[in-house]
Design a protein that fits this description.
231 residues; 19% helix; globular; 12 strands; six-stranded parallel β-sheet; Elongation Factor Tu (Ef-tu), domain 3
């Protein structure tokens, strides 16, 4: 499906990412949590971005939400003008990294690296509507200010709706009291309560490969490990 739509909002997410909301203006747009769209200026090159909101949120709010990485100048590149009111082409949905329609599991673990949180946030919000579920999220970022949606995720954890663990991979000052360094077995194991856990991983290729291996060591069947690489 190809649509030409306007950007309704560009909001700060982290120093290296922006939340971009593209107004649907009443146009129907059905997708599965985890899918992406191709976005770019009309007639120009397009790049894929995962939807960061669940399908239910999109229907309720009337816009597509993306988490767009930017450079030091705050721009994603010439393909995408990050200005409210600018028109962009949207093509999709696309991708097979999706939350299943009727999972047998009731325990879900999401593992994100950097902006890889985008499709996992969509899945997480979708999963929260399923009765009697348990959800764990392990989120890795380079520095403490690069956790997108952090306030929202911490609120969900404080409400007891998710288990949240965060780690930073670069040297930081004394303002960060949480976990530091690469994700290891010690960080992952507490979130895997039993082998019947459906796991989703999105982030750099190295993180995806390492987490897939660790989950297998913890007794998770390969069929219960879903992965998406970026970078």
């Amino acid at each position: 499906m190809l649509l030409t739509l306007a950007i309704g909002a560009v909001l700060p997410a982290t120093p290296r990412a922006r939340i971009v909301r593209i107004e649907l203006d009443g146009a129907p747009f059905d997708y599965t949590a985890g899918q992406a769209i191709l976005v770019g200026a009309p007639g120009g090159p397009k790049r894929p971005y995962s939807m960061a909101a669940s399908p239910e949120e999109t229907r309720r709010e009337g816009y597509l939400e993306l988490l767009v990485g930017v450079d030091a100048n705050g721009t994603p590149g010439p393909h995408l003008p990050l200005e409210r009111g600018r028109v962009v082409d949207v093509n999709g949905p696309l991708g097979t990294f999706t939350f299943p329609p009727a999972p047998a599991e009731r325990r879900f673990v999401f593992i994100a690296g950097g902006t890889g949180i985008a499709p996992l946030r969509a899945m997480l919000h979708h999963a929260l509507a399923i009765p009697k579920v348990e959800i764990g999220l392990l989120y890795s970022a380079r520095t403490p200010d690069e956790f997108a949606y952090e306030r929202e995720l911490r609120a969900l954890a404080q409400e007891g709706r998710i288990e949240l663990r965060q780690t930073v991979t670069r040297t930081v000052g004394d303002t960060w009291n949480g976990q530091r360094g690469r994700i290891g077995r010690a960080e992952l194991q507490p979130l895997v309560h039993n082998p019947a856990t459906l796991c989703f991983i999105c982030g750099p290729p190295a993180l995806v490969a390492e987490m897939s291996g660790l989950l297998a060591e913890l007794g998770i069947e390969r069929s219960r490990i879903r992965v998406e690489e970026w970078g």
